[in-house]
Amino acid sequence: MSRRRGWMFFALGIVLALGTGVMVFLFLQNQTVSIEQRSRDEAFARYAPPPTMAVPVAARPLDPGVTISAADYIMKDFPLDLVPLSAITDTKQLENNVLVRPVGQGETFQANQFLGKQALSISQQIKKGSVLFAFPIVDLMTKSNIIREGDHIDLYITLPLKGQTADTSTDQTAQPTSVPEQDLGSATALTMQNIEVFKVLYDTAGQSDTQQASASAPSALLCIVTPQDAAVLKYAKDSGGVIDFTLRSPVDTEPFDVPSIDKFEFSRRFLKQQQ
């Protein structure tokens, strides 16, 4: 009986020892977890991520000539101290603007990458497929200094007409002779329409700052035209004809149907025949 009681106390002691060991292990484990959590919290508080700003970046590589829409950019968080000073942060400044420089995927946008923005060279402000043509001031309209940048003008030109009379000779054996050109008068035509004025140039050479600030006579117009229209302007300028510009209304964007007129048409339409 005493031996059985001894074994019972021995077994109970083992159970208590095991229970105590488990409790100590759990206690120490909890303490370790608490210390590690506290360390992580302190480290997070000490090394918390810096404040960020959402900045639009290119969603894919974008080439010059692209008109930016909402599909061309995504928003990306940047630490405040890593946001470029020149980066555009407002998406309203992006949409419907035309790129003049390529933008890589994930790159921020800058004002000097867009058509017509400040700090761009003149060449970056020219529309794709167009060129700038400098046309000297030659007519009263442009000399009057009322044309401004962004206006649209039409070009009229009057040129002398030359011709030859038909050879009515029936002698086929006769040697051909040169027939002098006859003066057929002149003709006026609406040659080019809706020319955009990019800039009005003024001759300020040798003038003081005060004189330059005052109204000066314009010396030339910088016009945005296609290369084909530039050839027409070049010919008109060098032809020796009389050139006049007319100023368009901003609401008139369609071509005018204006037939050319010469002295015969002018007489037929406006001069009465002598009886």
Automatic annotation (TrEMBL):
One Pfam family hit: RcpC
Keyword Membrane: yes
Cross-referenced CDD domains: SAF_CpaB_FlgA_like
Keywords: Membrane, Transmembrane, Transmembrane helix
Signal peptide start and end residues: none
Domain SAF: 53-115
Ranges that cross the membrane: 7-28
Keyword Transmembrane helix: yes
Protein name: SAF domain-containing protein
UniProt organism field: Kouleothrix aurantiaca
